[in-house]
Design brief:
Elements: E1 12-19, H1 29-44, E2 47-55, H2 63-66, H3 69-77, H4 80-88, E3 91-95, H5 98-101, H6 106-118, E4 121-125, E5 130-132, H7 134-137, H8 140-176
Parallel strand pairs: 1-2, 1-3, 3-4
Antiparallel strand pairs: 4-5
Length: 200
């Protein structure tokens, strides 16, 4: 138990960066998320002591939790040692948006966020400037806003997944009918008509 008169230590921050498509690494996603966290750190005078990166790991399938650094962080939040640290100093988790943490079912997202917050971590989302603590999440408007963001993220990923499944289903059917599935073929094969297009 922490004594009431225990001197609080300086606050610290942990940043989290994630995207599902590894091709995004060559784009602006990494720079945007990292830059946003650095800007927040400088503005608030709080040092980022750890950077967690789950690059190319899907938040829709939960792969970032099963195999990524976020999963390890969630396990750490359950430990008494980490929760004790959060009692003597403010620990911030900096993310671009809640959809970086998860795009799974809404209840899964809510449970994940509350587990982090109940451990004593203050979650900050850069895109909208929201701060999530036990107190703010007890505010109906803040909770509704968070759930709305979570629902939107889940629905967007569900639609994207459905579209991809339909595209591949059509390609498989075309292949069955003898149509070209893809122009990417083994080097030892040659297209009868080099100008043929997929689906022709």
């Amino acid at each position: 138990m922490i004594k009431p008169n225990t001197k609080r230590l300086d606050p610290i921050a942990i940043s989290y960066l994630r995207f599902s498509d590894i091709q995004q690494e060559a784009g602006h996603s990494t720079a945007r998320q990292t830059g946003g966290a650095d800007e927040w750190s400088e503005k608030n005078g709080i040092e980022i002591v750890k950077r967690m990166d789950d690059l190319g790991l899907s938040a829709w399938t939960g792969k970032h939790v099963k195999k990524g650094q976020l999963g390890a962080f969630l396990e750490m939040c359950k430990t008494e040692d980490f929760q004790t640290i959060c009692q003597v100093r403010d620990v911030y988790l900096i993310v671009e948006c809640l959809d970086r943490l998860s795009r799974e079912m809404i209840l899964t997202q809510v449970s994940q966020l509350t587990d982090i917050v109940h451990a004593g971590v203050i979650v900050v989302t850069l895109v909208d400037g929201q701060v999530f603590t036990p107190e703010t999440l007890n505010n109906p408007s803040t909770l509704i806003m968070a759930v709305t963001v979570m629902a939107t993220a889940n629905q967007e990923s569900a639609k994207k997944s459905d579209r991809l499944l339909k595209v591949y289903a059509k390609k498989r059917q075309d292949a069955i009918e003898g149509k070209l599935f893809s122009r990417n073929i083994p080097a030892w094969l040659e297209l009868a008509d080099p100008k043929a297009k997929s689906g022709d």
